[in-house]
Amino acid sequence: MSLGAPSSGIRWKDYQIDTPTFQLSPVEKPDMSPFLFHMTGKKQILSILDPDSNNIPDNHGFLRSCVPEATSQESHYNAEVVCFSESPTFALDFFRHRSFKRWRDDQSYGIGFDKSALSTLGARPCIYAEEQLKNDIIVLKERLDTVEIDDPVIKERLPSLISAAYPLIMPLLENTHTQGFMWEREWRYVNNANGGLQFPLDSIRVICCPENEEKEIKQKLGDYAAQIEFVRSWREYNEVTNYLKSRKKEMHIPQKNFYSDDKEYLDSLEEQLENHSKVFHKIDAFKSFIESIESKGDSTNEALSELQNTMDMMLSQIRNLKEKL
């Protein structure tokens, strides 16, 4: 059911989306993902997960930084970064269909990290800049080291501004026939103290790979594989079930014997009914979108049925309690 107008009698609280921005998934907004993916090929993913270097701690992977493909053609641009995409899981295979190089390298492999965690480490969205803005930032970056600035505020703020923006610059390429790379929805990690990003294997949330390659990747990961979801980015879609699992700590059926009186029990029931109702409406509104991607109707129908039964049970208990009070 779609969200109606206030006059229709629908409660805003039943449909309110209050998920933090970096945790938004396609359950709430189909074009969002709570993950940042680094897309790569088979040989590369194995070396990322098990780097051959004495400088990398045990149980850590390593993503080496480099000058991004689209900006490497700029003769004066040399920022080395680690690149990610915030594209939803189901859309990742678009990359291979869009870029010959990615298809040739068989980039059907991806490592997905929690977006909030990488943001805390300093990863940031790219700045898609038209030609003049891009050139201005590059020129200023080159010249700042050779000129003296008298104004103390500009002397302090301008180098900081340009240094922060420079590694995030991405040409908009608005006048080319392909109109650039905004489809990548790129984020970049720019701290190059170690030549890239060292990450603990337990920070991985999702891995995209062909089914017949999963076993070898799991062997590289060892015990850490048990907490990682493996998906086929070109045909699997599990955001809804993952979202429901993530809500288990918040969603439960209150047990009467845990409460000192009926009033406390009633308050808890009403709170949990609202939590279940929010999830129910989100999944219900999203059901048609999932089914248009791939036939996932059975899983969503099952989830909706389970939630509906739980809400009906709690509504019955609430009515009985209110009659008693």
Can you walk through the features of this model?
With 325 residues, the chain is an alpha+beta fold. It contains eleven helices and eleven strands. The protein has helices at 12-15, 42-49, 94-98, 100-104, 115-121, 131-143, 152-165, 214-221, 239-246, 262-293, 297-324, and strands at residues 35-40, 60-64, 82-85, 109-114, 124-125, 127-129, 169-171, 186-189, 196-200, 204-208, 229-231. Helix 6 crosses helix 7. The radius of gyration is 24 Å and the shape is globular. The two termini are 33 Å apart.
Largest sheet: 4 strands, mixed
- Outline the low-pLDDT stretches: none
Summing up helix and strand content along with how strands pair, one would put the structural category as alpha+beta
Q: Order of strands side by side in the largest beta sheet?
A: 1-4-10-11
Overall form? globular
End-to-end Cα distance, whole Å, is: 33 Å
Counted by DSSP, the helix tally is 11
Percent of residues in beta strands?
5-15%
Radius of gyration: 24 Å
Overall mean confidence score, pLDDT: 81
Task: State the share of residues found in helices, binned by percent.
Answer: 40-55%
